[in-house]
Specification:
mainly alpha
Length: 51
Amino acid sequence: MNIDHSVVLPDYKVIVNKLKQLRAILFCKVVSVRQLVQRSLTEFTNILLSF
C-alpha cells in the first residue's frame, strides 16, 4: 500500500493556516477585551473619585 504524500501535505498546510487564523482572531479578541476592561476600570475609578 503506497501512501501519496502530495495529498497529505496540502491538508497539513490548510490546518496550519486555520490555526494561524484562529490564533490571530483570539489575539484580537483578547486585546479588545483587555481594552474594554481597562476602559471600564478607568470609568469606575473616575466615578469613585467624583464622589
